[in-house]
Design goal:
By secondary structure, this protein is an alpha+beta fold. The chain is built from four helices and nine strands. A hairpin with a 2-residue loop joins strand 2 and strand 3. Helix 1 packs antiparallel against helix 2.
């Protein structure tokens, strides 16, 4: 039976993100709601010459679906991280449903480090590193990726294959203690 030293669940959830996305969603849905009411209830001409009533209905339904799906993907996703006596495990449902298990034997080096999410990885989520040549520069020979939802602290794992994986954390001291326990067993 494996012993769990660390467990963390992180979600996208800053107040500014909720505000911006709420504003975008409200604007999109408000426009289509007003256009539907103007066209079918008030018999106005808001869309006259721009779109047919059938096109308005199709556009409204598609916009609603996009808002629902993007809300689910953004606000329903979570980063699950676990450190046990023999491995580091993470998943990021609904994007990474299968738990990625990195055994202790696969880890050649680890560190808790501060990073620049936008400069190094182009933001948060499931990311590939942006090399020094810029976004469109030469591809690096080693795979360098990150999975994070916010902040700028992460567990950097260097694997025996040369691959580097950064897993974001909001609890840097706790994950550091867990990694020390794993490797000092």
């Amino acid at each position: 039976m494996k012993k769990v030293y660390f467990k963390e669940v992180q979600r996208f959830g800053s107040v500014s993100l909720y505000f911006v996305m709420g504003l975008i969603y409200t604007t999109i849905l408000g426009y289509f709601t007003y256009a539907l009411i103007d066209t079918f209830v008030l018999e106005g001409n808001m869309i006259s010459g721009h779109m047919s009533p059938r096109g308005l209905v199709i556009g409204s339904v598609l916009s609603l679906l996009i808002v629902i799906i993007s809300s689910f993907l953004l606000f329903g996703s979570k980063l699950l991280t676990e450190v046990t006596d023999s491995s580091v495990i993470y998943s990021f449902p609904p994007f990474i449903r299968v738990r990625r298990i990195i055994s202790k034997k696969e880890i050649s080096k680890w560190e808790i480090r501060e990073y620049k999410p936008i400069k190094e990885y182009g933001g948060w989520g499931i990311r590939q590193a942006i090399n020094k040549g810029g976004l469109y520069g030469k591809k690096s020979k080693t795979k360098n990726s990150a999975v994070n939802v916010g902040g700028n602290i992460g567990l950097q794992l260097t694997l025996t294959t040369g691959e580097k994986i950064l897993v974001g954390t909001q609890r840097q001291q706790a994950i550091k203690r867990a990694m020390n326990k794993m490797f000092n067993k």
